[in-house]
Design brief:
The longest helix is centred in the C-terminal third of the chain and has 46 residues. 19% of the residues lie in helices and 36% in strands. It is of the alpha+beta class and 291 residues long.
C-alpha cells in the first residue's frame, strides 16, 4: 500500500503492504487521512452525498490477556485537531465509529464493541466511560486478532448509516449498526486512527477503498453541495431504553393494565347488580297487581 492520497499523523507509518497506526507499545497515537481519490481528479474533503468505505484491518498482539485501546473511523470537519480520542480532538465535529477493545467503564457490554458517535463540536467524548453518554448506536463484534473487513456506508439521501463486518476468508457479512436518523454534511474528511495507553496492541490497516454512491441515487455534484452547511445531528431519534428499564417499565404497565381491567370489571359488575335489583323490584310490583 503506497502513500498516494494519504497524509499521516503521530506514530502512523506507511509501508509497501500496510499502514501501522500503532505498534504494540504504550502511549502511541497514529492516524491517516484521505486527501485524494485514486484515478479520479477529486480532492477531498468528501463532496459526495452518498458514500461507502471498506477498511481491511487487523488489531493484534502476542500472548497478552490485557490489550488496548482500539481503532476509529472518522468523517469529520477538521483532521488537524488532535486530541485524546484515539488521537482526535474530544470535541470533534462529525461522525466517529469507535472500535473499542478494552472496557474502561463498568457497564456489562461485551467487548470488543463498536460505538457510533455523532458530534457537532459542542459535546465532550468521555473516554473514561468509553463514550457511552454520547453514543447513539452500538454493537459487539469480535474483530480482534485476525484480519477483518469493515464496511461503513452513508446514504445521505435517506439519512441512513450502515456498519457491517465481513470475514475476509469466507466473505460472510455481519450487520452491526443500521440507523435511519443520521444527518451529515458534505465537505468533511475521512480518516482512520488508533491509540494505545497503559495497554497496547498492534493496529494495522491493509487497504482502504472509498467509493461514491451518488449515481445510485441520481445525485449530482450541485445537489451534494447544498448539504455542506448541514449540522451533524440525529433526526427524530429516541435512544433505546436499556433492557433493565424496559423490563421494569413493562412490569408497571402490566400492573396498571391489570388494575384498569379489575376496575372495569367492578364498575360493570356494579351496573349489572343495580340493573338486576331494579328489574327484580319492578317484577315484584308487577306481580302484586295480579293478587
Amino acid at each position: 500500500m503506497d502513500n498516494y492520497g494519504w497524509t499521516t499523523s503521530g506514530t502512523a507509518l506507511i509501508s509497501s503492504d500496510k499502514i501501522i497506526l500503532t505498534s504494540d507499545t504504550k502511549s502511541q497515537a497514529g492516524s491517516i487521512w484521505l486527501l485524494k481519490v485514486r484515478f479520479l481528479i477529486i480532492f477531498l474533503p468528501v463532496h459526495f452525498r452518498n458514500w461507502r468505505v471498506k477498511i481491511d484491518f487487523r488489531i493484534h498482539s502476542e500472548g497478552k490477556k490485557l490489550f488496548g485501546d482500539g481503532l476509529a473511523f472518522w468523517y469529520i470537519k477538521s483532521y488537524a485537531d488532535t486530541g485524546s480520542v484515539y488521537g482526535v480532538n474530544e470535541r470533534f465535529n462529525g461522525l466517529g465509529i469507535i472500535l473499542d477493545t478494552y472496557p474502561n467503564h463498568e457497564k456489562s457490554e461485551e467487548y470488543p464493541r463498536v460505538s457510533a458517535q455523532l458530534n457537532d463540536g459542542t459535546k465532550m467524548y468521555d473516554a473514561l466511560k468509553d463514550g457511552f453518554p454520547t453514543e447513539f448506536e452500538s454493537c459487539s463484534y469480535d474483530f480482534r486478532r485476525s484480519s477483518t473487513n469493515i464496511f461503513i456506508s452513508y446514504f445521505g439521501s435517506n439519512s441512513t448509516l450502515v456498519v457491517e463486518f465481513e470475514d475476509p476468508i469466507h466473505y460472510i457479512r455481519s450487520s452491526c449498526i443500521m440507523s435511519d436518523f443520521v444527518l451529515l454534511p458534505t465537505g468533511y474528511y475521512i480518516g482512520i486512527s488508533a491509540a494505545t495507553g497503559d495497554l497496547s496492541d498492534n493496529h494495522e490497516v491493509y487497504s482502504v477503498d472509498f467509493e461514491s454512491l451518488d449515481d445510485m441515487f441520481h445525485v449530482d455534484r450541485q445537489t451534494s453541495a447544498k448539504y455542506e452547511k448541514v449540522k451533524p445531528e440525529l433526526k427524530n431519534f429516541h435512544k433505546q431504553i436499556p433492557e433493565a428499564k424496559r423490563e421494569s417499565g413493562g412490569f408497571w404497565r402490566f400492573i396498571k393494565r391489570l388494575s384498569l381491567f379489575i376496575l372495569i370489571l367492578f364498575i360493570g359488575g356494579t351496573i349489572v347488580q343495580v340493573a338486576y335489583m331494579i328489574w327484580k323490584k319492578r317484577e315484584k310490583e308487577r306481580r302484586k297487581r295480579f293478587y
